[in-house]
Amino acid sequence: xxxxxxxxxxxxxxxxxxxxxxxxxxxxxxxxxxxxxxxxxxxxxxxxxxxxxxxxxxxxxxxxxxxxxxxxxxxxxxxxxxxxxxxxxxxxxxxxxxxxxxxxxxxxxxxxxxxxxxxxxxxxxxxxxxxxxxxxxxxxxxxxxxxxxxxxxxxxxxxxxx
Amino acid sequence: xxxxxxxxxxxxxxxxxxxxxxxxxxxxxxxxxxxxxxxxxxxxxxxxxxxxxxxxxxxxxxxxxxxxxxxxxxxxxxxxxxxxxxxxxxxxxxxxxxxxxxxx
Lengths: 162, 104
Description:
The complex is a heterodimer.
Chain A: E1 2-9, E2 14-21, H1 25-33, H2 35-38, E3 49-51, E4 61-67, E5 73-84, E6 88-95, E7 109-117, E8 123-130, H3 134-161
Chain B: H1 8-19, E1 22-23, H2 24-29, H3 35-47, E2 51-56, E3 59-64, H4 66-98
Antiparallel strand pairs in B: 1-3, 2-3
Helix pairs in contact in B: 1-3
């Protein structure tokens, strides 16, 4: 569970982060393929994700929402671009309106997860995230971060009231 | 396919134009490719907001956008934080299982 490398490429608007997982490739794939496992890590504890439709089939639309501390929900979707269980998943990730319908006016990002056996056991998981433009990156990251920041603020508030 | 975006030429063009203005023709002479190909790379960088192009007489001047680069770096650093959190939680999911799967 150690992050081994982070490669940030601002010119290409991409980031690749690689982690070593203490699990087989098949087991690591379940982190993505099983929506209940995915829910345990996709969103931060104070902004948990709930996956509604989840089928990792080519072209399938995966829908999810994240619930904030005040019960506010933000909806998102993935479109499965390519899938090769248990090794590779390529998705488009975007925002949806309150009914869960993809919002075409909002930008999308592409994410590719690659799982490979590690020498000496375990799995290397590489996640590549690619943005179509700086503007798209700004919108997507700041909206994603809002959740992270809310989570952090929530934790601070918790500490202060103890 | 995505790596095509990280094209070494594009990176080189960006670095040069961040250091100072260049016109497209002198820039094009540096690379073993056609003027049109270099122009295409410049257009991609321009589309990403990483360089801006200005016409000065008959010349097209390209300059790197330092602010944009800073912004891109900052955003990627934030994205890294998001993924650090996710990877930490993945670690917990896998560790719970090793400990007898106390959590559902």
